[in-house]
Amino acid sequence: MKRHLSLRNKIILTICVIITLIVVTANIFSLMNNNQYRYEALLTRAEMVAESQASAMASSIWEYDQDSAELSLKGLLKDPEFVTAVIFDDAGKLFAKIEKTSEDINSGVIVIEKDVYFQTTANTRRKIGQVRITMTTTKLQRQLRKQSIQGILEVFLLLLLVVPNLIYAIRKFTKPIEDMTRIMRMSAEGKRPPEINSKYLKREDEIGAIANSLKQDQQQRQDEMKLLKIATSISNELNLTKLLKQIITATTELLESERSSLFLYDEESDTLWSLIAEGVKDQVIRVKSNTGIVGETFTTKKSLIVQNTQNRNNFHKSVDKKTGFITKSILSTPMIDKKGNCIGVLQILNKRDGSFCERDLRRAVSLASQAAISIDNARLFEETLNLKNYQQAILESLSNGVMTFDQRESLTVANDAAMKILQLRNILEKKNGEIFVENNKWVADSIHEVLTNGSNDLAMDTELETSNGSVSVNLTTVPLEDIHNNRIGAVLAIEDITKEKRIRNTMSRYMSKTVLDRVLEDDPDILNGSQQVCSILFSDIRKFTTISETIGARNTVTLLNSYFEEMVSCIMDRGGILDKYIGDAIMASFGAPFTKPQDAQNAVLAAVEMMKKLVPFNKKQQELGAPTVDIGIGINTGDAIAGNIGSSKRVEYTVIGDTVNLASRLEGVTKFYGAPIVISEYTHKHLKDNLFIRPLDYIRVKGKNKPVLILEVMDHYCDSFEINQFIEFFIQGFDSYRERNFSACIEQFAKALEVKPGDITSKMLMERARYYVMEAPPENWDGVWVMKEK
């Protein structure tokens, strides 16, 4: 594999080469200069020698004295660079010569020639010869070689001293760059890089900037890896409760916080609630969707950081008080689903080290986005599973048999009712023709026809053969289609129409399932007539004639259907029987056909629930622009005759007698006393003590001579006023009224009106008392009020 020099080695090599070149060049330049200087000095000396000899030889050559000339030349032998000296006369003949025979002159010489002149008596110059001096450059070359070797040694020593220090300095200088490069390379290769030296992070130069950038990149990569791990973990969890716990744990770990909370939006109550909040055991935190920091995040769909929650006006301090946790700072981010809707808020509380920053915000937003997707998936899975279970539960709860077949005519689904009616088992995935055979083969043909042509087939009141004999059924076969209207199978519905089924169908319209089951199991003949103690409930809509005239016939029917749907459920949930609808009125009985000790209590509780349900019903009416309704309810308890009453063409199970008549009268007096729920003393004595009840009056209803104490049940008022205090004042006033202490009576009723202003009964009895203060009642006055209207 081809290896590349590192940046550090490249810098070291480059600088060493440059230094070497500089030093070598400098040395070469110095040597050349020195050598040139010596050469020029030698040349100058040679010229001077030649010049001096030319001057010195003039006399000797003129006098032709060879011995003196040679003697004069011998002084040159002492010169280390001297080689030869030759003197020629004017004829060019050798006059004198001297040389160093031991010198090696092959390496180079300098030859200088000078003419010899003699100055005559006539003061004229005459050329009489020539001097030739030869000087060797051998010594110069030796000095050059010596200095060259010395220069090389100096360069080597210099590099030996400089380069290690240079390498150390360069290594120290380039180490941060090399470390940064190694980290970047490892990051690029997907390897886990080492931690960045804290010294680099503190530097304020380019290295510090690079180190901090790499640190942020590492943190970003770590965040991405953590987020990927978290996303993988939570995306595989489809259980919503476990998923929410995973998200909370992951959020706290990722954001390095003390605690996290996840709030989901409840559209029905318009609140944000959190069951999954760390440190909160089995406590549901619930706040309005537009209040608090969490509400601000939810409504604006914008993330925010609050470093000091105690200074925020919209911080819910009550939550801290409830949980015992002190919230110092909050990072709050919305969870947006793929449709752009905010499904909740993720909150991170109290950063462990320092304060929340933009990096934390980005991480929280990424996590919230993934959490929203996972929550959507978990909810979808949960809804799908619930739908499947719901459909299965529906199938199993049906008393009618249901069977489905695919396009190959194989049985795919059969509920218990179908198996019970047909007296079959272990028939799933069997073919249509294998299930319905012999006398039942026509059913198989019907299913085949529906699968082939896509048409419906209906067979009413027909017979099916089973292992236990024949059974009367209604059969309906319809095609089964997917969402694209493609035929994918057929559904066979089997309705059992035995005698019990017919009775159940008739009675279930006005009798709860529990009562009906007991009637059919114990004694169906009880429906033919019996006398027993019952509690009768009458309810009526106030000013219904005016309402119906205002909204018209169609809207009147719609209003009544909606109203009856809500009210009747309250009655049947308490075990009551719907006796009949009388226009806008409802008559119900508790205790028929079976008497129970809690019948009176159930009747009163059903009335309270009816009044409570009337509140959301009227709110919905207002939203639709429809009229609201007020009702009055009267309840009486006593002996009554119950049974199927009617003609041969139509029979109804009902209750008759004086008990029923008084209950009807009591419903009427609710308007007079302004009391929505009025009961008789006979009902009151069967009740438990856990209800808010006040006496209203002693009355004689029309058609009756015996007075009866009537009372009002006030539990439906809830927290609109202090009920206990009101009832206490009213009873004291009522007792004073009955004792003819009318002054005290007026005082107590005044106190009652302060607690519940506008109370009609208090005002009415106060007016009577004032009248009796002015004009005392007769001695035989019994305090009974005679009702002259129904």
Tag the structure with descriptive keywords:
790 residues, alpha+beta, Beta-Lactamase, 5 domains, nine-stranded mixed β-sheet, six-stranded antiparallel β-sheet, 21 helices, elongated
Please give a structural write-up:
With 790 residues, this protein is α+β, with helices and mostly antiparallel strands. Strands 16, 17, 18, 19, 20, 21, 22, 23 and 24 form a nine-stranded mixed β-sheet that branches. Helix 3 packs parallel to helix 5, helix 5 (206-235) packs antiparallel against helix 6 (240-255) and helix 19 (723-738) packs antiparallel against helix 20 (742-755). The longest helix is centred in the first third of the chain and has 57 residues, at 7-63. The radius of gyration is 60 Å and the shape is elongated.
- Please, what is the CATH homologous superfamily of the largest domain? Nucleotide cyclase, GGDEF domain
The CATH topology of the largest domain turns out to be: Alpha-Beta Plaits
What can be said about the biggest beta sheet?
Answer: 9 strands, mixed
Helix content: 40-55%
The end-to-end span amounts to 111 Å
Mean pLDDT: 79
Top-tier CATH class of the largest domain:
Alpha Beta
Unreliable residue runs: none
From the spread of the alpha carbons, the general shape counts as: elongated
